[in-house]
C-alpha cells in the first residue's frame, strides 16, 4: 500500500488526492510540496477524497511480464490484466489503474461507468500489497 494514496474499506474506499487552494487543481497521485499547475502562483494543498465513480476514458491489456527493473516472480505464471484510464469528471483528471480480476478488455467500452474498489496487487506469506482497481458498476466481486 502506498501511504496517503487511498483510505477506507468496502463502500468507503476512496482514492486521496490534493487540491490547490488558489487554482482548485486536483492532483493524483497526491502532491504535497507545490501546485503542479504551471499557470498557478501556488497555494496551500489540502487532501481531498476523489470521486468513487468515473467513466472509462481508455483501456488496454497487459499481456507480457514486465521487464527489469520491475519485480515479478518468474516462478509464478503471468496473468494478463486489463488496464483502465478513468476520467473523474468533477476533478477534471484521468486516473490509471487495473481492472478487477475477471474483467477483460472485451468487457470494457469507452464511456462506461466504473467504480474504484480495493484490490490486491500481490501477496505472499507475510505481506498483502493493497492497491486500487476499477470495476464496472453493477458488477460484484
UniProtKB/TrEMBL annotation:
InterPro entries assigned: ChsH2_Znr (IPR022002), NA-bd_OB-fold (IPR012340), Thioester_dehydratase-like (IPR052513)
Residue stretches making up the ChsH2 rubredoxin-like zinc ribbon domain: 10-46
Top-level division of the source organism's lineage: Bacteria
Transmembrane segments: none
Pfam families, alphabetized: zf-ChsH2
PANTHER family: BLR3430 PROTEIN (PTHR34075:SF5)
Protein name in UniProt: Benzoylsuccinyl-CoA thiolase
